[in-house]
Amino acid sequence: MTMGAKVRVSFASRPGDEAIENEDFVAAKEGTVVVLDGVTPMDRTDTGCQHGVAWFARTVGTQLLQSSHMSTRPLADCLADAIVRTRDDHAGTCNIDHPDSPAATVAAVRIRDGVLDFLVLADSAVVLDGAELEVVTDHRAGDVSRWLRRRGERPTGPAVRSYRNRPRGYWVAAHQPDAAYEAIVGSAPVDGLRRVVLATDGATRLVDTFKLLKWEEALDDLTSCGLEAFLDRTRDVERDDAARGRRHGAKVHDDATIVLLSDL
Ligand SMILES: [Zn+2]
């Protein structure tokens, strides 16, 4: 496969709360796909940014698609550029040093010259279905919660956030370009791949949170039943779980985005 060659890309995305704009963002051009998940702020009225989380995810995502498509530069370099351009877009009007300034997780893939490059920053996922199934995701934010608990500290939102974009903490796309080089990156020959999935953590709950499916089964569901049906099932399971009072995580529903690359 050559750069820009044909590949089938399908996606589904929906907000966790119909009253709030979907803060996930997805964009694709031929074999380049970017998925971002805007981090929910503690207080939407106090982020130092007049643009909001959806704008931030959309701006970084658009810049990343532009800088990576038809380029051979490493995806981490492209993401660092996208972070800098976005920062410069609002540094003059907003307080980008606010501790809860907008941030986003990033998952990206790019097909070029028979190779698929991938990048994952924070807890979105890239799943490569080849000779073996490879799930690429970065759980360092969850690790911070776990070791705070082990030290006898409560992993409150502000406590975990104080380790954002710090060594030994966790990394997301905010305004520091260095975060791009904390992403998990890699490449795989396209010939060995059948399907590739990108997903925000709101769309991986059937696998990660509820453990109802293994990724192999999730991929077969996505292929046979479609992406909308997969998100419908996620919402049904979340509603059942909430009704039983066993809520997993802080939100009943989260913004959910899933992308399937097939016919590779
Ligand atoms: Zn702003």
From TrEMBL:
Q: Which residues form the PPM-type phosphatase domain?
A: 32-208
Q: What is one Pfam family matched by this protein? A: PP2C_2
Q: Name the InterPro entries on file.
A: PPM-type-like_dom_sf (IPR036457), PPM-type_phosphatase-like_dom (IPR001932)
Domain of life per record: Bacteria
Give the protein name, as stated in the record: Protein phosphatase 2C domain-containing protein
Instruction: Name the source organism.
Output: Tenggerimyces flavus
Q: What is the lineage of its organism?
A: Bacteria, Bacillati, Actinomycetota, Actinomycetes, Propionibacteriales
